[in-house]
Amino acid sequence: MKCEEARKLLPMYLYGELAPSEEEACEAHVDECELCRVEMERQSRLNRLLEAQEEMLPAGMLTLARQQLRTRLAEERPHQGWRSWVRDIFNVRMRPTPAWMQAAAAAALIAAGYLGARVAPWGVSSAELYGRPVASRIQYVEPEKSGRVQIVMDVTRQRIVRGELNDADIQNLLMKATREAENAGVRVQSVELLKRDCGSDAIRNAVLGALQHDPDPGVRLVALDALRGFAWEPDTREALSQVLLTDRNPSVRTQVINVLVEQKQDAMIGVFQDLIRREDDAYVRQQCGRALHAMNASAEEY
Amino acid sequence: MQATAAAVTGTVQKLDEASLIRAAQRGDERAFEELVRLYDQQVLRLAYNVLRSAEDANDIYQEAYMRVYRNLHAFRFDCSFQTWLYRIVTNLCLDALRKRKVRKEESGTVETADGSVDRMASVEEQRVHGNPQREVLAREMRERIDGALGGLTPRERMVFELRHYHGMRLRAIGETLGTSEEAAKNCLFRATQKMRAALGDLV
Predict the structure, then answer these.
(1) Per CATH, domain B1-112 is 1.20.58.480
(2) Which of A45, A142, A170, B74 is the most buried (most CB within 10 A)?
(3) How far is A158 from chain B (nearest CA, A)?
(4) What is the pLDDT of residue B23?
(5) The complex's ipTM?
(6) What is the DSSP string of A16-54?
């Protein structure tokens, strides 16, 4: 092998990209040729120098890129329209809004950022959406030498959803709000708005859920008020009885008594008698005694 | 929904790349996110090294993965996912390099207006901060290397990057760039010759 040929092969030799026969010939030549050996060493040093000079990614750059991509994907995603999102979230079958309900003028307005953000975006039918980006969480702050600063943050999109109160999608959002909105005021408002449609099983269950599980007594009281008209139903009455015996708040228990006593159901007598025995709160006990008296029953079990 | 998501996360961890791709093709968003994370650091590093600009590299990253997202349904496992991904990324980088070259030739100036240049300088300063002599030497070295890399054609630059900094074999480079192994080899040879000529006095 001549020097000229060896010099051509050297870079590929160092990259390990030669065929075995070429590699052997190259090695044999370098062993014998001082000049080519020196050249190989220089080429090798150059490679190492270039490797050492490789730029590392600036801190935070990958996080920022991933974050931006997530936002772009979220915007790209739902070709399906927001109704299918709602359907997926609630696992509820959507019905077209009945014509008689279309006339109802009440409009619900939900501006809860988190709620709106999850129930994204385009192709809206009966409801209207408005959105603007909102910075929600700062992940990372890095001062730069120039005096500028690099901030990596999560960006969510706040949306306003407008629609008729009888719109199934709006109702689903309201039901979701009763369960998930962080602000108790939003939950109260949602239950209030759902009150007029408690005839629907799904809504009544949502309101019942709020009564049974909401941590805020204000929300539970509004839910109880919404269910007042349905205490005649055995299932609702049964649920109310449970609330009466388990709710931690005396005001809620008192109000449940008021709702149940209106039903004048004999089946309630046992529940009231049970309550009066275990009740710690004097006022609730008194109310319970009055209820039993109104139902011509004794405070004692026979 | 949350329960489903949790279940999916648990499953995804166990999935191999092919299963991940299939799940993402079916519309599983978490699987897609996992798929992105398999190679996205390399993708960003490639774009950043070649373009030497954080902003441009981020643009490439975003565009590449949006293309992956939009076209994943058409991926048929004819090649590895990495090769398919790199094909998208290298094409975008080559386009950006070519546009940049045209801009440079038209304006006749070096891109000093580009924020990336400032950024590179600031990174350099941080690295050797506190030693003015080393700082000057490091900056000079950086400029020399940048100048040498800038003397390569976009294609040579890309082949050199993939072989030298990403350790890809020439066969894979050829497949990624839609050319033969031999053509990639010739390209790499030209690149090393140019680098040797430009930087030979340093070693």
Answers:
(1) no
(2) A170
(3) 21
(4) 92
(5) 0.80
(6) T-S-HHHHHHHHHHHHH-HHHHHHHHHHHHHHHHHHHTP
